[in-house]
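Lab notebook page, bench 4
Experiment: in silico fold of construct C2
Operator: M.H.
Input chain length: 295 residues
Purpose: comparison with the prior construct
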Amino acid sequence: MSQSVLLETSLPGMPGRRGKVRDIYDLGDKLLLVSTDRLSAFDWVLPTGIPDKGRVLTQIAAFWFSRLGEPNHLITTDVDQMDLPAEADRDALRGRSTLGRKTQVIPIECVVRGYLAGSGWAEYQRDGTVCGISLPAGLVESSKLPEPIFTPSTKAETGHDENISFEQMVDIVGRDLSEELRRRSLAIFQRGSEFARERGIIIADTKFEFGQVDGEILLIDEVLTPDSSRFWPADAYEPGRGQPSFDKQFVRDWLSSTDWDKNSPPPPLPDDVVQKTRQKYVEAYERLTGRELAK
């Protein structure tokens, strides 16, 4: 492969921690989020990275933060404007680093679903509901919902997030905050989906995260990326089946075709799967922004 892969970062003298796919450094009242090219699937971090994945996700999120005009945590993605140790490899960090305000994170994943897919489709087939919300009869896999629905979940430190009802969310964070987060999540999803649809991408569902600073609610983390959302190509959309996507589906499909038991360390990915996955991430960025990914 011609592209290099960034699997981990090290910034001397800066306290940090390593997540599944990002490295996070504490700068007092700020956080530095570095999106690596690591890839997770089936709750494992894979031994093979996807070139440019971290740069794509960072720059898509920055694009949305700017376009949406929503109060958010972003300070800059320009490493030359960041106060980093002299030994820091700025070239390795360039394009994949976000300096953001540190917030008190609200412990809820604000999920919005506009189409019937994934676990929602499985639940609908069984119960006619998604996360306990009743839906009309006769919908098929990938159907567009009559209107987007808000289906919050807990933020799990380990393992899977757990879907909860809106009233359970109220019990956790209070009614006023719950209603505000629901309103803002649905509004952001609507604006983002309309813009993406004009660029040939259907955003089937997504999750938002929010934090608070001095009582102000800020959109944080990443927003409307192929890792936090389902992106489908609009020109291939056909209800009644699963849809092609702009994310790591090639990887999931390949892993599922092997004899890997999902309980032991995963195998390395073949080059063709890596390159196809990279192409999908880059295509999502270029469709949305109308720009080529900077070299």
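Observations: Helices lie at 53-68, 90-93, 118-127, 166-173, 175-198, 249-257, 271-289. The first helix runs from residue 53 to 68.
Next step: discuss at group meeting.
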